[in-house]
Amino acid sequence: PANVQGTPPFDHPGVHQTGPGQYEVDVIGFTWGFIPAEIDVPADADITFVATSMDVIHGFEIAGTRVNMMLIPGQVSRLTYRFTGPGEHLLLCHEYCGLGHQTMHAKVVVQ
Ligand code: CUA
User: Which pairing describes strands 22-30 and 46-53: parallel, antiparallel, or unpaired?
Assistant: First the structure.
């Protein structure tokens, strides 16, 4: 966890196309936010979220979807999801992680 930002794939966080209709989104959670703070993905594609924490345990939930996992220091969490239409979603931390917990969020924009 101390070297998350120097370790692939987290040395290049963001959205990466891995094949036709397939994308990987590499995300780092930290106190108190996500890198990147905005995630732009296409609808009707397989989006695999690959995420970890660089400090304490955080949550990773995209409101209104079944994307719901824990970010644990030293572990990599992975989940594939398909958004069926365009829209804007809130990515939030749903595990209490300290004073700024309630401010820990990012935006997922589905094009
Ligand atoms: Cu991170 Cu709550």
Answer: parallel
